[in-house]
């Protein structure tokens, strides 16, 4: 089978790999689609994501859907042949965070295609992958595998909106209209936000945001854009740049909430801390997700508009061209790899 392995900065290889055998408790899944995530691009372009650096070759990918092939000893789940999405996280289940209901920040979690621990956790960008059987989720009626490939990033967005608190009837600002930012728009609308304003530097990105429910889009580099709000109730920073966080802190109302979702550059990043103090702004982080995965699948099944975010489906043999396209935000939003040979 073919797999996408990152060996270092700029060194992505499509390699012939052995088909794994499912261990006890595992399921073997034939992967159909894998979504190229921003973190995959960071490993390819920079050799790491935030403070997580590559130290050995790693199979990329954590946004994967496919069909069940078989199970190892003692494992059970959807019947062989069933279409499934793979929840990419395996929390330890015993640390204080897991015990306290915050498994997404488990201190000893395993996450597909992540260099956060060593040895790295190998990912899902391969023809077949063996994963814990409890991580499989059968696709709900009406949801095909192509759209289901958005389940993981949509779960991230749903968790970020959940971290913001009740947004019903609120005005929500989203800085950054990449795939995650666009999905935050959809998540905020689904949670009852009355108005969503999105900022980005690229007109094409703002078009994607409008397609999934943004009421107002603003050019981030144009202070004279008429769409700039005087203030908002909630802001979600999804660009991963310090300027985006500054915009959120400047525009959120006194006593409002800012959620930092985008992964900022490694090291120390300056921010307008005095605004947090003088306006009593709630500044919260949002990292990955947990139970939101099931809600993401239900939302995807109910809303065909998500299809607009899928820019291209590229055969796995052309993975580097897929990564190049995914990195070009003037031409794409979400790019999928097709592993169905």
Number of strands: 20
- Listing every helix as H and every strand as E from the N terminus to the C terminus, the arrangement reads EEEHEEEEEEHEEEHHEHEHEEHEHEHEHE
- Could you estimate the helical fraction of the residues in percent? 25-40%
If you average the pLDDT, what whole number results? Answer: 96
Summary, kept brief:
This protein is an alpha/beta fold. It contains ten helices and 20 strands. It has two domains: 2-138 and 303-338, Quinone Oxidoreductase, Chain A, domain 1; 157-285, NAD(P)-binding Rossmann-like Domain (Rossmann fold, 3-Layer(aba) Sandwich).
Any descriptors?
2 domains, 29% strand, Quinone Oxidoreductase, Chain A, domain 1, seven-stranded mixed sheet, alpha/beta, 341 residues, Rossmann fold, 10 helices
Describe what you observe in this structure.
- α4 crosses α5 and α4 packs across α9.
- This protein has two domains: 173 residues, Alpha-Beta Complex (Quinone Oxidoreductase, Chain A, domain 1), CATH 3.90.180; 129 residues, NAD(P)-binding Rossmann-like Domain (Rossmann fold, 3-Layer(aba) Sandwich).
- The strands form five sheets. Strands 3, 7, 8, 11, 12, 19 and 20 form a seven-stranded mixed beta sheet that branches.
- The mean pLDDT is 96.
- The protein has 341 residues and is of the alpha/beta class.
- It is globular.
